[in-house]
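From the methods appendix. Each design record in this collection lists the tokenized structure first, followed by the designed amino acid sequence. Records were kept in a plain field format so they could be parsed without special tools. The example shown here is representative of the layout used throughout.

RECORD:
FOLD TOKENS (366 positions):
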């Protein structure tokens, strides 16, 4: 039997033709075909209530998220200045903390978010406290810090989505950095007026078991339970001004797409939470920015069309794509467990003009 990840080959272009937006039905059909399933799996509700995503699965998912984000941002330049949003700890309970950031009007209009970075200041642990915990091994002195986006649904229930995770040492102090770009992307899809951005930060043991260290209880971030001041949580928003970096190929978000619009990449959000078939099957993410290629392409002169009659009309298609990591629930041997998969070519990186799938030389591109 082939490994599960080999079954998840999903191409955007065959799903939705050039210039046509992907639909939920097409996405579902491709997933079923690639997994060789005839119908949507229905996980047992009791199993899902007891399902816990292990730390190693979370770490694998976060690693793929970082790699995917690196592919998407490669070659793009940050704006010369970035916006910094001050946050505060809204609540803390045991080793879980809730951060809130007021985001309205923080992202400049006609811009593209390239990266959002959460900065938390880890306070030094007093030597006397370390001494009381005895001699900690290098591994035993580490804790895992996980950042999740928290969304409050219309019915009052909460939904968290894993965003980033990393190990920290109790022997260190200073700023710790987390990539929360996906959280801000999710927040941007909410209906206006948007609520503040909520990030849930949890500090857990690196390893579980009776011999696991309690060092995670020593990790503390500045401003927890104290007035805002030096070292308070910071959110850095790095953006591209589309007026200056229009060569990246993104459509003008303030201009409607018409017949005269040249080939460009338009934002398109796939909301997995709004698809019933994904419920309890797709655990992460709640959705993703897929983008789509829209607009028209300049056609070759008639003389070239006569010389190369095998070339069809040039169309606006995706020429570069990036993968999408996911966590899904699968059933093997009578038990349900989470599995990390990576779907290739799910996010459009760049749109270009092509004839019958062959890229036209740059000099002919508009």
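DESIGN:
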């Amino acid at each position: 039997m082939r490994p599960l990840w080999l079954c998840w080959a999903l191409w955007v272009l065959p799903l939705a033709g050039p210039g046509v937006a992907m639909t939920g039905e097409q996405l579902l059909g491709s997933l079923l075909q690639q997994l060789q399933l005839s119908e949507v799996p229905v996980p047992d509700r009791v199993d899902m209530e007891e399902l816990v995503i292990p730390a190693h699965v979370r770490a694998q998912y976060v690693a793929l998220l970082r790699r995917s984000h690196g592919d998407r941002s490669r070659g793009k330049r940050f704006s010369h200045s970035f916006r910094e949003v001050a946050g505060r700890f809204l609540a803390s309970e045991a080793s879980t903390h809730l951060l809130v950031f007021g985001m309205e009007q923080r992202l400049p209009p006609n811009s593209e978010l390239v990266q959002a970075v959460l900065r938390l200041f880890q306070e030094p642990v007093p030597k006397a406290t370390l001494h009381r915990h005895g001699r900690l091994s290098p591994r035993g002195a580490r804790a895992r810090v996980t950042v999740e986006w928290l969304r409050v649904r219309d019915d009052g229930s909460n939904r968290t989505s894993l965003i980033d995770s990393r190990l920290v040492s109790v022997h260190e102090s200073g700023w710790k950095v987390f990539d929360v770009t996906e959280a801000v992307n999710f927040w941007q899809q909410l209906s206006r007026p948007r609520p503040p951005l909520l990030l849930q930060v949890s500090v857990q043991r690196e390893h579980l078991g009776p011999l696991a260290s309690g060092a995670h209880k020593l990790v503390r971030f500045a401003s927890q339970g104290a007035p805002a001041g030096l070292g308070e949580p910071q959110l850095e928003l790095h953006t591209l001004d589309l007026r200056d970096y229009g060569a990246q190929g993104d459509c003008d978000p303030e201009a409607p797409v018409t017949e005269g619009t040249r080939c460009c990449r338009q934002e398109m959000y796939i909301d997995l939470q709004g698809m019933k078939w994904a419920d309890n099957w797709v655990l992460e993410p709640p959705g993703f920015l897929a983008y789509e290629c829209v607009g028209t392409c300049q056609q070759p002169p008639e003389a070239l069309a006569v010389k190369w009659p095998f070339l069809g009309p040039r169309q606006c298609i995706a020429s570069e794509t990036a993968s999408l990591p996911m966590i899904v629930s699968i059933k093997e041997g009578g038990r349900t467990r989470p599995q990390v998969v990576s779907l290739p070519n799910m996010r459009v990186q760049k749109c270009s003009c092509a004839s019958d799938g062959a890229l036209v030389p740059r000099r002919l591109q508009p």
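APPENDIX NOTE: Residues 24-69+243-356 form a domain with the Cystine Knot Cytokines, subunit B fold (CATH 2.10.90.10).
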